[in-house]
UniProtKB/TrEMBL annotation:
Classification via Gene3D superfamilies: Tetracycline Repressor, domain 2
Domain HTH tetR-type: 6-66
The species this protein was found in: Kutzneria buriramensis
PANTHER family: HTH-TYPE TRANSCRIPTIONAL REGULATOR RUTR, HTH-TYPE TRANSCRIPTIONAL REPRESSOR BDCR
Positions of the DNA-binding region: 29-48
Top-level taxon: Bacteria
Protein's name in the database: AcrR family transcriptional regulator
Matching SUPFAM superfamilies: Homeodomain-like (SSF46689), Tetracyclin repressor-like, C-terminal domain (SSF48498)
Family annotation (Pfam families): TetR_C_24 (PF17932), TetR_N (PF00440)
Keyword Plastid tagged: no
Record key words, sorted: DNA-binding
Record's keyword annotation contains DNA-binding: yes
GO molecular function: DNA-binding transcription factor activity; transcription cis-regulatory region binding
Length: 217
């Protein structure tokens, strides 16, 4: 794929993200996506076989990049499960603060994928949950976490649900900055896990995952 083709593909993905965020996948037409890019309607089919495939590629990109980012930040956090937990929560918070449109599309519109395509996305979502649960279980075994439910998986799911709601209300011009959100949500997540009031080492505000297209406004 040439650089021009890559830029065109990324523009289509970025336009689709905004339109799916504003109207939903079902209410958005191929014509509306291509018009938003200044392309002819047929231009979309140079990159995607259908609107369904575009949604799949978009949602897969969102989830795969988030997973890569969590793996990297967990490794950078060292061996302490509390530090690893804080680092993972910080990644999710940063993504939902700084890429609200992509986060909401990733969290809501994936349900319109066909069953064969949905499997891959659900696998990544499961791995993201299991990654957090693994850290919680390690922390509980070390006495760092005291899980009220006794279930690392249940607590991981609750933490991810809490972080996922950020994209529903967070605004750049609001009173809370991404750094303040990152600290607040790490503290909340630690309480949910029955952990210490703060991690031994606060994670540096992570760089947000990199997605195709322009940044969210």
């Amino acid at each position: 794929m040439t650089s021009v083709e890559t830029r065109s593909r990324d523009r289509l993905l970025a336009a689709a993200t905004t339109l799916f965020y504003e109207r939903g996948f079902l209410a958005t037409s191929v014509k509306e996506i291509t018009q938003a890019c200044g392309f002819t309607q047929g231009a979309l089919y140079n990159h995607f076989s259908s609107k369904d495939e575009l949604l799949y590629e978009l949602v897969l990109d969102i989830h795969a990049e988030l997973e890569r980012h969590t793996i990297r930040e967990r490794a950078n956090a060292g061996d302490d499960p509390v530090d690893q937990f804080a680092a993972l929560v910080a990644v999710h918070v940063t993504a939902h603060c700084q890429f609200r449109e992509r986060s909401r599309v990733g969290n809501h519109e994936y349900r319109y994928l066909t069953s064969s395509r949905l499997v891959g996305v659900l696998d990544i979502r499961r791995r993201l949950r299991d990654q957090l649960a693994e850290v919680l279980a390690a922390g509980a075994a070390a006495g760092a976490f005291h899980l009220v439910s006794g279930s690392a998986t249940g607590t991981a799911r609750a933490v991810l649900d809490m972080c996922g709601l950020i994209s529903e209300w967070f605004r750049d011009d609001g009173e809370l900055t991404p750094l303040a959100m990152h600290r607040r949500y790490v503290e909340l997540a630690l309480r949910m896990a029955g952990g210490p009031p703060e991690p031994p080492h606060w994670p540096v505000l992570p760089e947000p995952p990199q997605f195709p297209g322009v940044d969210d406004a």
